[in-house]
Amino acid sequence: MTLKLGVNIDHVATLRQARRAAYPDPLDAGAIALAAGADYVVVHLRKDQRHINQTDVANLCKLFPKQIHLECSCSDFGQAAALKCKPYSVCIVPELPGEVTTTGGLNFTLAVQKRLSAMIEKLHKKHILVSLFVNPVATDLRMAAKLGADIVELCTAAYSEAKTQKQSQKLVQELALSALLAQELGLEVHAGHGLDYHNVLAVADIGGISCMNIGFAIITRALFTGLPSAVEEMKNLL
Length: 238
Known about the structure:
The chain is of the alpha/beta class.
């Protein structure tokens, strides 16, 4: 089975913001990625809007209503943007002040559980699929199912940062067991964070994962090969 590919285009907007220019336009990047074989366009709308902004999200959702996968925090800002723009799906992710990138899955404290439950209910009323970004551990998967998520995205950061083959193999096994449990819980399974052209195959070989969300590696490769080629190469690996 060919896995679906979500291409995160945040860093196209990062380049635009470096000069505060009107280009490169994330809409162009989204169109090119989809034409080259991507199944979804992924964007992370951070509260500081340091790359993708609300206008980008609104325009992308209008242009590609069934192919935008929005990442946002469990916050009033993220919820309001998602309900207004109505992407196909929303992945709720943790967001810490000053972080360079997302550092791990959601921390399911009682307060977070309460906020997630309310946000998931509101998104479902707008017919938006909800994914939760989780660490590959059984307790978090069960909590995602309990809260009513449709999808879990397994955080592959630890695997992507593994220093030895033995450590890498152990972490792949953990991802595989998590994917199996998630399926048993009735959840669709995605994976992402730190995946690239060299480490993606071991995760792609795990049964039960339906989609890989990859951004930085693809956009980096695109600087040298062009975006269509970079997307096609990743899609072919999957």
